[in-house]
Design brief:
This protein is an alpha/beta fold. The protein has twelve helices and 15 strands. It has two domains: 159 residues, 2-Layer Sandwich (VC0802-like), CATH 3.30.2130; 184 residues, Rossmann fold (3-Layer(aba) Sandwich), CATH 3.40.50. The longest helix has 20 residues. The site of S-adenosylmethionine has 24 residues, from α6.
């Protein structure tokens, strides 16, 4: 199998996949971190069970792909032959529909669309020969989503067992401005090491928008399975058809193990509309009672108490600007936020996602870690700031001053 993820998330995904495999008692599976995702090998029956568990439990993977063929990809005839070699009649009946997507890196082929068409032709020709009729193509609701990946002169064919991408958890009714994908929100929490256990302590997102980070966090705190509220492509595919009982058992076990939240989650936003949307999403995700929402300006929002973790993506950057009382202030919004955190959140750790590599300088804080992560096409950093009252500034200058001089103030 191959589980793709956002760039920067590979290591965290490898750890997550290993944990899911161990929870599923898949003792003979092996995971390997690769560029853009994680490969997983297991003996066939164990692998089929893992498809169910990974789709249900992974918070970080974009999809769970099942490799069905690998070979040459020098020209379209290669691709046709490769696809002809798969026993597609064991995957679907002619009354079901398929769709072929193509991804490529350094492929010599001139048209990826034509490459995909040749794979579709091979599947349809083979099915017609075996069963007298051929399946349709459906772009919107395929039963069999096929992915052709071209890498140089080699080609790999996968069946996408997830169908809709896994960031679609099935709870999002409303989005705010510039929402994060659920998989990236989960990656921020994983990078911060916040796992929802009692020892993780309180979590706050003071720029919560549609609530993505807080909802992922609350589900972690309740040990809920992210995929329990949606459907998957494997449910309609031959190799998994006999596993309906296993699937229902897995779903029931996931629902049974969910418990009252082990750690408190707080979320706020200056926009009343965003908080209303976040509340609605949280209710659909089954965690409205596990998140304390508030309408508040992040530069004035009091600490909920205790020492905890802030994980957030503030409105700094490409698509959105801050609002609220301090938004247009001469000294700047980011330093005002940092000053507030140092005063009211002493002892907390803040993890801030931003596309601006100079954010620590702007906030006048020292970053103790920078994790590179991609938000779609935008390269970002997740910065870690330790909130120690009044002690950051001197060390920040040591780290961020340009060579041979001083930066501002
Ligand atoms: C990039 S979006 C966050 C998106 C969120 N992570 C999600 O997945 O929906 C930034 C949010 O900051 C909010 N915002 C802007 N200025 C603010 C302020 N002064 N205090 C609190 N929230 C603010 C906006 O309303 C917006 O919802």
């Amino acid at each position: 199998m191959f589980l793709p993820c956002a760039a920067g998330v590979e290591e965290m995904l490898a750890a997550e996949v290993a944990a899911i495999a161990s929870r599923a008692h898949a003792s003979r599976s092996e995971t390997a971190r690769e560029r853009g995702g994680v490969a997983l090998r297991a003996p066939a029956p164990e692998a089929a069970r893992l498809v169910l568990s990974l789709n249900l439990e992974s918070r970080l993977a974009q999809r769970v792909l099942w490799r069905v063929a690998e070979g040459g990809g020098r020209d379209e005839d290669d691709l046709y032959d490769l696809a002809r070699g798969v026993r597609w009649n064991e995957w679907i009946t002619p009354r079901q529909a398929l769709r072929v997507d193509v991804t490529a890196r350094h492929s010599p082929l001139r048209s990826l669309r034509f490459a995909g068409l040749r794979v579709k032709d091979a599947v349809c020709d083979l099915m017609r020969e075996r069963s007298g009729s051929r399946p349709d193509v459906s772009l919107d609701a395929p039963d069999l989503p096929i992915l052709l990946h071209l890498d140089g002169e080699s080609a790999t064919l996968y069946v996408d067992t997830s169908g809709e991408a896994l960031f679609k958890r099935g709870w999002r009714a409303r989005t705010g401005d510039a929402p994060l994908k659920e998989t990236l929100a989960a990656a921020l929490l994983a990078a911060a090491g916040w796992d929802g256990s009692e020892s993780a302590g309180p979590l706050l997102d003071p720029f919560c928008g549609a609530g993505t980070i807080a909802i992922e966090a609350a589900q972690l705190a309740r040990d809920m399975a992210p995929g329990a509220g949606r459907r998957f492509a494997f449910e309609k595919l031959g190799p998994f058809r006999g596993m309906g009982r296993d699937w229902l058992d897995l779903l029931a076990a996931a629902r049974d193990r969910a418990h009252a939240p082990s750690a408190p989650v707080f979320a706020s936003d200056v926009s009343r509309g965003a908080v209303a949307a976040a509340r609605e999403n949280a209710a659909r995700a089954g965690v409205d009672d596990a998140i304390e929402f508030a309408v508040a300006d992040a530069t004035a929002r009091p600490s909920p108490g205790g020492q905890g973790t802030i994980v957030t993506n503030p409105p700094f950057g490409e698509r959105i600007a801050p609002s609220g009382a301090r938004a247009g202030e001469g000294g700047g919004f980011a330093p005002a936020l940092a000053a507030h955190w140092k005063r009211d959140f002493a002892g907390w750790t803040a993890w801030v996602l931003s596309p601006d590599p100079k954010l620590p300088t702007t906030m006048r804080l020292e970053a103790s870690r920078r994790v590179p992560l991609w938000n779609g096409p935008i390269e970002c950093r997740l910065f870690r700031f330790e909130m120690v009252r009044g002690s950051n500034r001197r060390r920040r200058v040591a780290e961020d001053a340009p060579l041979g001089g001083w930066s501002e103030g």
